[in-house]
Structures are given as C-alpha cells and as structure tokens.
Request: fold
Amino acid sequence: MNLPNTLTLTRIILTPFFVLAILWNFPFHYLVALVIFSIASITDMLDGKIARSRNLVTNFGKFCDPLADKILVLSALLCFVQNNLCSCIIVIIVLFREFAVSSIRLLAAAEGKVVAANMWGKVKTVTQIIAIILIFVLQFVLELMIMGIIPISPEGIEISSTIFCLIGEIALWISTIFCIISGVIYIIDNKKFISQK
Reply:
C-alpha cells in the first residue's frame, strides 16, 4: 500500500479515538479531541498532494479518500449533536448530500467509471473541518472558564457558553451551505449516470 493510501487509512483509524475524546468527559477532553482531529485533517491535506505529486493516484484512493472525510466529519457532527453543540438538521442535510453523491459514485462504478471529488467538494470539506476545529477551540476555552483557569463570573460563563454555541452553529451552517452547493453541482456534473436507461 502506498503512502497516500496509508494516510487515508490512518484518518479512518484515528476517528474512534477523537470520538472517544469528545464523548468521554475528562479534563481537557476537547483539547485532546482537537489534537487528534487536527492530525487526521492534516492527513487529508497530505494524501492528495502526495498522490498527485508522486503519480500515486489510485482507484482505491479516489474512493477511500472521500469516504475517510465523510467518516471523520460525520462522526464529529454526530458527537456534537449528542453534546447539544449542533442541530440535527445540519446532520440530516449532510447525510442526504453524502448519500446522493455516494449513489452517483456507485452508478458510475457500475459503468466502469471512477468519479473523483470536485473542487466544490474540497471547499465543503475544508469549511466543515474549520467549523469543527472552531467548536473544539471554543469548548476548550469554555472548559478553562468552568475550571477557573480563566477567571470569569458564573454569569460570564453562561453568556460565553451561549455566544460560543451561536458562533459554532453559524460556522456549521456556513459549511452546510457549501455542502448543499457542492452536492447540487456534483449531481449536475454527473447527471449522465442518473439519466441512463
């Protein structure tokens, strides 16, 4: 297995560890989740660049790279729903888009074609990663406030919590808009696979 594909698999393997870090409420757990998620996100940036620069692009990579992204991002979003940091509507929209795109990929595969991610798909993934990292950072700062490491009144903690949740929600909705745009463009660009009789 070449290096880009190894990095892609590493991203999948890291996912359960950052999920555990989000859901297991131990001191600085959001910081730990942030570190693991950031490492996984770096592998996303590196695998494609290495594959293209070293001519190591494979069908496995074309299929598994987007799959690893979906596993990583959707795991984070579902954990955020569990922790009341994300609307389930966002997750439903993202899931709908991912199922639609995956269905087109399956139709293309039946015709012997491999459909790689387009630029808008990459923009969608980047905005999702930025939003998720932002939420981790904000929740870590809130944890420091609650622990008294950042001195602030109880009222200040409550106000900060509300503001942080609002900022995170806005960031996620921005990424969801790009998710919708990329999905629509993907369907339009590959409608030939849908319209075939």
The CA atoms of residues 28 and 157 lie 17 Å apart. The radius of gyration is 18 Å. The chain has one domain: 3-195. The domain at 3-195 is CATH 1.20.120 (Four Helix Bundle (Hemerythrin (Met), subunit A)).
